[in-house]
Amino acid sequence: MGHQTVIVLDFGGQYNQLIARRVRECGVYCEVRSYTTPLAELKAMAPIGIIFTGGPNSVYLDGAPCVDSEVFTWGVPILGICYGCQLMAHVLGGRVVPAQDDSAREYGKTMTRFDTGCKLFQSLPDTGVTWMSHGDYMEKAPEGFALTARSEACPNAAIADEKRGFYGVQFHPEVNHTSRGTDMIRNFLFQVCRAAGDWTMEDYKRSAVKSLRERIGEGRVLLALSGGVDSSVAAALLAEAVGEQLTCVFVDHGLMRKNEGDEVEAAFSKWAMNFVRVDAGERFLTRLAGVAEPERKRKIIGEEFIRVFEDEARKIGAVDYLAQGTIYPDVIESGAGAAAVIKSHHNVGGLPDCVEFKEIVEPLRLLFKDEVRQLGRELGLPEYLVTRQPFPGPGLAIRVIGDITKDKLDMLREADAIFREEMERAGEEKRLSQFFAALTNMRSVGVMGDGRTYDYAIALRAVTTDDFMTADWARIPYELLDRVSVRIVNEVPGINRVLYDVTSKPPATVEFE
User: Fold this and answer.
1) I need a surface site. Which of 94, 138, 324, 441 has the fewest CB within 10 A?
2) Catalytic residue of the set 174, 333, 371, 513
3) Does residue 82 carry a catalytic annotation?
4) Which contiguous run of DSSP H or E holds residue 311?
């Protein structure tokens, strides 16, 4: 039985992935599609609702992302958010203009009043905080639309044509800063679109297994297995779908944490699957020698991964598909559609243009991290694998700032192992989403004993997050940080200073590079 689908039409905004997440949290399946997707393809999906996302452009400028007015004739409810609201107004005959003064521009938390008679705000308080981020102004709403929310600076913070099921908000209900924002999205889904809320992770598992079987057929698959959550779940999903047609290749690229290669091999050697470990440390370090620029590191690692997999595929013989544990945040940060490239992930933007596989299979590509963990549980993976902290595919290469050498990697491995050991001993790992050490490219003067040192600084990082699209720096007890610092500078030669990163995402990313 198929499930209902909502289309999130992407116009390049920074919060677009959160919209999809909120919809799925409500038990409704959705897919994110670019605004450039042909109308026929969108219509064939038979959506019960469409959400226009935000975006960085102005709807009245030549070349601004737009949508064919035909979409408004389908009889499908539409919710426009920020740019999406202004686009709806623009296409349907309203007027959007640049804000003439600062009072008409709104950024950040804004007190807003709602018409609770509108289905979008039904059962909500009539006043609340919304998150605004717009420099343009909807001077005139289209004919047939009522004004359903207002702020001090904006009399048309929301508009609605309830007869046709068209709604627009100039704020962002998908972000946590908007109070009861998820309830607004839920109202759109259930009060307007009449969603059944029929999508679950069990349903996703069934449909994914069916889709993989149809796509792969009798072909053979090589999975790039890192031992992390994403690739482990991808392995379990593919194993259920195609069984012995799957070979999992673990590339030990010399950039793993202390003892990690042996731990991964031990964990997966117990599974009924074809498991191959490739020792490629010297090969990767040779390619990375003298390279300091982060994007170049990622692209070199991405290409070298593919070349190693191609070599292994030749040994296996007649491998048709390369499978990866790519998840949605990887796709977003690597740039998708109108979105900006934040950094190329080795398994997305780091891939070379030419590969020797028929296709690349990414069964988790539209899932967030917490959804991947849920899927892992549905597939029966052990909890220690499902809850394992993320470790980037490029490994310690992007935690050594600047050029990479074996000595630097060894220093970092020891410092990171001390940090993880003390965090686990204190029980802090249970409340944190990710923590690690990074070797900075900074050297500074220190004193050890009676002598002067000129050594490297280690930076410690720990964050809490639900989906890794945003993250807050973790408030770790000073006593714990003190123990970690004392141990690192005493036990790791070449380190004389320890720093703690107190930057959230955004503006930072979780990893340093």
Assistant:
1) 441
2) 174
3) yes
4) helix 294-316
Q: Which of 30, 82, 118, 248 is catalytic?
A: 82
- CA distances 44 to 40, 41, 231, 487, Å, are 6, 5, 32, 61
Tokens of 69: 């007015």
C-alpha to C-alpha distances, 301 to 256, 354, 403, 423, 427, nearest whole angstrom: 13, 15, 14, 30, 34
Terminal-residue alpha carbon distance, the chain: 44
Q: Assess whether 172 carries a catalytic annotation.
A: yes
Query: What are the residues whose beta carbons fall under 8 Å from the beta carbon of 355, sequence distance 6 or more?
Result: 306, 310, 322
- Within 10 angstroms of residue 475's Cβ, the number of other Cβ atoms is 9
Using an 8 Å Cβ cutoff, are 419 and 462 in contact? Answer: no
Q: Please name the residues in contact with 97: beta carbons below 8 A apart, sequence gap of 6 or more.
A: 60, 136, 137, 139
Closest-CA residue to 128 (of 145, 150, 155): 150
Give this prediction's pTM. Answer: 0.65
Amino acid identity of 17?
A: Q
pLDDT digits (tens, 9 = 90+) for 35-88: 999 999 999 999 999 999 998 888 898 899 999 999 999 999 999 999 999 999
- Residues 6+ away with beta carbon under 8 Å from 191: 119, 120, 122
Burial status of residue 174 (CB atoms within 10 A of its CB: 0-12, 13-18, 19 or more): buried
Q: Could you tell me whether strands 221-224 and 321-323 are parallel, antiparallel, or unpaired per DSSP bridges? A: parallel
Number of residues written out for the chain: 513
CA-to-CA separations, 139 to 80, 85, 91, in angstroms, rounded = 16, 12, 14
Q: Is the dihedral of CA 44, 11, 359, 249 positive or negative?
A: negative
Short-list 10, 22, 187, CA closest to 84:
10
* Span 291-336, pLDDT tens digits: 999 989 989 998 998 898 888 888 888 888 989 888 876 776 555 4
Using CA atoms, how far residue 110 sits from 105, 134, 204, 387, in Å, is 11, 12, 37, 37
Question: What HEC string does 336-391 produce?
Answer: CCCCCCCCCCCCCCCCCCCCCCCEEECCCCCCCHHHHHHHHHHCCCCHHHHCCCCC
What phi-psi label fits residue 425: left (phi over 0), alpha (psi between -120 and 50 degrees) or beta?
alpha
- pLDDT of 264: 81
